[in-house]
Amino acid sequence: MFPQAPPDGILKLSVLSRADTDSNKVDLGVGAYRDDNGKPWVLPVVAKAEQRLQNDPNANHEYMGVGGLPSLTGGAQTLIFGSDSPAIHEGRLYTLQTISGTGANMLGAVFLKEFKVPADAAIYISKPTWGNHRSIFETAGHKVREYRYCNYQTLTLDINGMLEDLRAAPPGQIIVLHACAHNPTGIDPTEEQWSKIADVMAERGHFPFFDCAYQGFATGDVDRDALAIRMFVSRGFELFVAESFAKNMGLYGERTGCLHVVTKDSSLLPAVSSQLNRLSRATISTASAYGAKIAGTVLQDKALYSEWLANMQTMSDRIKSMREALRSKLTELGTPGDWSHVTSQIGMFSFTGLSLDQVETLRNKYHMYLTDDGRISVAALNSNNVEYVAKAIDAVVRA
Ligand code: LMR
Question: What are 272-315's pLDDT values in tens digits?
């Protein structure tokens, strides 16, 4: 008989929070954007695209192709790599639609399990990383190792530790990198640090596997948030990018994403694309339609695209203002410790540095649901709950 699997560290919080009837409860768990009333936000541009699809007299529910919807995959290529990307112009890029970022990570992992060189290469993930990464790569049969990423004392990037670990790894390992808005820490390398990371990766012949779930969330600027990926492409790396449209388009349930593969040479593309298509056909058959049609419509229409950028700015501005509000409440309360990381970290999350004991007290006594590693989804804060959250944090820090 096999053992029961443990609950997912992030998704279990939504279940616990739903079952909690306390009027003060705050679900700071799953990374999903909420408006200032604590409600899910349908991006106005998404509502417009949906309306357009509903009015289309040729709309149907036919199967899509295995590779996905070209308006989505093509738009996603330009979004991530930029319209002037050498990988696009030299025919060295293949993009396949996936079941959001998770599906892209898994498809890439399954492909690498079969074709990676050297065959015993491990997948290196940052310490810490998104709770699902280890599970995805281990489920696909890889050895998973960690590289240092966060200095837990200062809650800043441990760049020296990271570079040392990448240098010490055997040549040709697969390195998972968060393109922007690192999950869970909200700590991103600077451009200069990315350049050092790229130097070591090139020196050691490592393979970059970017996970890009927050383009547009980190800085409000889609080009800036793609800086690391574009830098690696310009340096001639072969690489993967797992891309999700869950956060930046608010298409959480539609599972809309892509896996991008950049090869050194265009002659490799037929083999790479056909094998990826084979693996995708074997797991999900053909691509899923609804979210792809919405995202494809937004990406291909100039006016909708500009509106989308503005919608992302709205989300990113509100998150920034909540970071400032939380930090200033903690400062007002004189909460022991340095809370500057709340505003210096970017993206959807703040890595608070709270211990597991403190997290459990927040959960059990204050009805606040954050992950065991002390991550809070800043997107769940609003003008009504931020004071309560700050006071609760203050109380557990002083206890
Ligand atoms: C998160 O980290 O909360 C999100 O990426 C949602 C998920 O699937 O875990």
Answer: 999 999 999 999 999 999 999 999 999 999 999 999 999 999 99
What is the C-alpha separation between 258 and 261, in angstroms, rounded?
Answer: 10
Residue in 247, 301, 339, 394 annotated catalytic: 247
Closest ligand 1 atom to Cα of 377 = 3
What pLDDT sits at residue 59? 93
Domain covering 11-42+318-398 in this structure, CATH number: 3.90.1150.10
* Position in ligand 1 atom list of the atom nearest CA 371: 3
- The strand pair at 150-151 and 156-157 is best described as antiparallel
The answer, yes or no, to whether residue 186 has pLDDT greater than 90, is yes
Spacing, Cα 183 to ligand 1 middle (Å):
9
Catalytic: which of 130, 165, 293, 329?
130
Read off the pLDDT band of 6 (50, 70, 90): very high
Assess if CATH 3.40.718.10 describes domain 70-300.
no
Report d(CA 277, CA 279) in Å as an integer.
Answer: 5
Tell me which residue has its CA closest to atom 2 in ligand 1. 31
130 is catalytic: yes
- The atom of ligand 1 lying closest to the CA of 11 is 9
Whether 211 is a known active-site residue: answer yes
Spatial CB neighbours of 332, under 8 Å, sequence gap ≥ 6: none
Reading the block at residue 256, the tokens are 């809309």
ipTM: 0.96
In this structure, the residues whose C-beta lies within 6 A of any atom of ligand 1 are 10, 30-31, 130, 132, 183
Beta bridge partners of 377: 349
Q: Where along the chain do its domains lie? A: 11-42+318-398, 70-300
Q: What is the pLDDT of residue 217?
A: 82
